[in-house]
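S.,

Sequence below, as promised.
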Amino acid sequence: MLFNSIDFAIFLPIVFILYWFVTNKSLKLQNILLVVSSYIFYGWWDWRFLSLILFSTLIDYSVGRALAKENAISKRRLLLWTSILVNIGFLGFFKYYNFFLENFVSAFSFFGKEINANSLNIILPVGISFYTFQTLSYTIDVYKRKLEPTKDVIAFSAFVSFFPQLVAGPIERATNLLPQFYKHRKFKYSSAVDGLRQILWGLFKKVVIADNCAKYANYIFDNSADLNGSTLVLGAVFFTFQIYGDFSGYSDIAIGISRLFGFNLKQNFAFPYFSRDIAEFWRRWHMSLSTWFRDYLYIPLGGSRGRLTKTIRNVFIIFIVSGFWHGANWTFIVWGALNAVYFLPILLTKNNRNHLNTIAEGRLFPSLKEFTLMMITFILTVFAWIFFRAETIEHAFNYTSGIFSNSLFSTPYFENGTLAIPTVLLVVFFSIVEWFGRQDQYAIESMFKNHKVLKWSFYYLIVILIFVFAGSSQEFIYFQF
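The prediction came back faster than expected:
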C-alpha cells in the first residue's frame, strides 16, 4: 500500500478513528489494532510475506526472553547468533542469492570452468532490509544488556511491524520505539497538527519533486549514449533530487503519521545537500541506517582506534556493506567504495567532526568558504549517485565518460527537454524552502510561524502544487531495498 495512493487515503482515517475513538480506553487493544493494521498494510502487496515478519518477530521475541534467563556467556552468544543467522539468512536468500550465484558462475567461467546453475525467480519482500535491521537492534541491545527484554509479545509485534515506517524506515532502535508501546497514549492536538504538516511536506517532496525529477532522470539515464555531456549532468542532478525527495519524503510522511498516533520517531534526514564535507553528509543522510552501521558494525570492528591499516579497513567495510545493503548489484558496492574514498582523507586528517553545527547557523547566507565547501560536497555526491543509479558498472563508466567529453559545455538538450523547465523551477523553489528551514526537524516546521496569513497561504500553495504537478502514483525508490 503506497502512502500516495487512494487505498492508503481510505486506510489511514479508518485506523485513526478506530485507534482514538474505539480502542482508546485500552493500551493492549490499541497495540493489537496497530499490529492488525500493520499486517493489512504490509499484506496489501503480497500476503504470503507476512509469514516472514511473523517468524522474525517470534524468533527475536523468543531469543530476547531466553537471554533474560541466561547468564552463561557461551549460551548467550549462541542465542545472539541464532537471531543474527535467521534474520540475515532470510535477507541473504531473498535479496542476494541470485547475485552470489551469478558471480560464482562467472568466476568459474573466467578460469575456463563452466558450471550449470539456475537462478531462482525470487520476489524481494518489500522492506525486508528495514525490519530485519530493526529486529536485530533489539536482540543485540538485549544481549549487551542495554535493554530489558520485553514480556509483551503484542507490544513487540507492534514494534516490528509498525506500519508508518515498516517498509522504508526510519530504522528505529528498540531502545527508542519499543518503550512507547508500553505507555498509555493521549491524543495531542498540537502533535497531530505538526504531524499533518510534516506529511504535507513529505507528499510534496515525493509527488512533486521526486516523481517529476524521475521522469527526466529515467529518460536521460536510459538514453545516455545518445545525449551530450551537459544533458548527462542534468540527468545526474535530477536523480540526486529524485532520490532525496523520494526517500526523505517517505521518512517525513512516516514520522508525521506516527505523530498522529502518539509516537515519536527519530529524524532520518537533516538537509544533507547543505553539508560542507562528506562526513557531515553521512551524519545527515539516512541517519537511522548510518548510525546503525556505526554502532553495530564499525565500532565493534574497532572503529578508528588502533593501526592505520585497521582504520582504513573498517571504513571500507562499513561503506561497502552499506552499499551492498542497498541492492545486489556491483554498482551499489562501487558507490559505497567511492564514498569510502571520499571519507578517508577527512577521517585520517581528523577533520571528520569539523562541521557539527548547521551551515550558516543564525545567518541568512553562508560565507564564501561555506558555500564553496557545500558545492564541492554536492558535486562529489552527484557523481557518486551516477553509480547508484546506473544499471551496470559499464553503464556508469560510459555515463561518466560521456560527461567528461567535449560536449560538457554545450547546451543541454533532449527530446521534450523544454517540458523539464517547470521541474527545474520546482527544484529551485524546493531548495530555497529547504534552506530557510534547515535548522528545524523538517523544512516547513516553523515556516511563517508568527504570520498566520502567510503561513496558510503557503500551505495552500503546497497543496495546489501537489494537485497540479502530481503525476501517476509511483512506488518509493527504497521499496526495492
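Residues 191-276+355-480 form one domain.

Coffee later?
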